[in-house]
């Protein structure tokens, strides 16, 4: 599975109709839809599709034809996202009607092509399930622990300084297993 970290856009023209596809992280969906409707008030349609992972690691999908004939735009766009195994990603296609009707097959092809073109242009990242864990260490161990976290590309989400130090971390299971082998014996990785 793959995802994008930033927005990409690509314009595709078919029989004088203009399709501008915007691909971006799903978390920005509401903000981007509002922005694009303000930026393109004369556009006929704002078709969308998105796929994201919920808290139970299930893929949630949705799409809208936004006034296009049923099944000719939102669903084909969603199928392209699914075909590229994209998650936590959304696409909005802004369409300016060029005066020539494309027919149902033409609409399906045009929207699919627009989404494929923006995906080809995008930088995709492989999805890895991140876990949150924490460790407790003494002040004297902190520099060594931070060095190991940096070497293993484990992100520190929070530091809490009391009589000792609690670090909340985020990484993949594999990275945590590798880290545990490298840490001093008195430091244990715990589930958060």
Question: Please, could you describe this protein's structure?
Answer:
- This protein is an alpha+beta fold and 192 residues long.
- It contains five helices and eleven strands; from the N terminus they run βββαββαβαββαββαβ.
- The protein has helices spanning 29-39, 74-83, 103-121, 142-151, 173-182; strands spanning 2-3, 8-14, 17-25, 45-53, 59-64, 89-96, 125-126, 131-137, 155-161, 165-171, 189-191.
- Strands 2-3-6-4-5 form a five-stranded antiparallel β-sheet, with helices on both faces.
- A hairpin with a 2-residue loop joins strand 2 (8-14) and strand 3 (17-25).
- The radius of gyration is 22 Å and the shape is elongated.
Summarize the structure.
This protein is an alpha+beta fold.
List keywords for this structure.
alpha+beta; five-stranded antiparallel beta sheet; 31% helix; elongated
DSSP strand content? 25-35%
- What is the mean predicted local confidence, pLDDT? 92
Class computed from helices, strands and strand pairing: alpha+beta
Measured as a percent range, the helix fraction is 25-40%
What gap, in angstroms, lies between the N and C termini? 25 Å
Q: Low-confidence segments, ≥5 residues, pLDDT <50? A: none
Query: What's the overall geometry?
Result: elongated
Rg for CA atoms: 22 Å
- Our count of helices gives 5
Q: What does the largest sheet look like?
A: 5 strands, antiparallel
Strand element count: 11
Q: Strands across the major sheet, in which order? A: 2-3-6-4-5
